[in-house]
Amino acid sequence: MKRRKAIGRILAAGGAVVLGFGSYEWYELAKKPDIPYLLAKKELLADLAETIIPVTQIPGAKEAGAVDFMVPILAECTEPKTLNRFIDGLRDLESHTRSRYQRDFTQCTANEKEEILHYFEEESRPVNRLVAKAKNKYLGRPFFETLKWYTVECYCISEKGATQGLTYIAVPGSYQACIPLAPMQKAWATK
Fold first, then answer.
1. 2 in any annotated domain
2. Contact at 8 Å (CB) between 35 and 75?
């Protein structure tokens, strides 16, 4: 066999393997999301949200009912790629928690919950911004990024989050681009 044919066959075989693996991964992300699994994990999502926004002088995410907004938004408004990555991330979080702490996430202590979330935050951190943009576009947003985004959004649109967690002004006055904030002043609920 000539060298050019051998190199061509090696490249073709490598390309076929990469194409096959990429097609399988694309199928896994483009398939219909497992919505019943997501709906069954409402308590887990509430604990995750509470770990991200805990109770301080203001109500936490669980008390504000952020998960009541989060589940319908995830199930009905999130693109399938991102939702499949989110559901896979929930499954990974459950298996990681069971293997590391021998119990469910909801039964872990506050420090253990923070360690678990730090682990998943580090795991979802991209190598560089260009790779992250390409992955987000073609494979959907990562699990932890989606979790943080929806937790904060759903907390801020809840009644307790908008009125107690943020400074709420029912009828804002004129637009002011830069307003000096006082120490410990809350962010504005109406932007």
1. no
2. yes
Mean pLDDT over the full length of the chain? 83
CA distance 178 to 138: 37
Which pTM value belongs to this model? 0.75
Residue 172 tokens, joined: 């804002």
Asked whether residue 190 is assigned to any structural domain, the reply reads: no
Q: CB of 166 within 8 A of CB of 189?
A: yes
d(CA 50, CA 48): 5
Q: Within a domain: residue 11?
A: no
Contact indicator for 92, 101 with CB cutoff of 8 Å: no
What whole-number distance in Å separates Cα of residue 110 and Cα of residue 40?
22
Residues 142-176 pLDDT 10s: 899 999 999 999 998 888 888 888 776 666 667 77
The 10s digit of each residue's pLDDT in 106-150 is 999 999 999 999 999 998 887 778 877 877 777 788 899 999 999
Helix 66-77 to helix 143-157 angle (10° resolution) is 130
Residue type, 160: K
Count of structural domains within the chain: 1
Domain range enclosing 65: 32-164
| 9, part of any domain | no
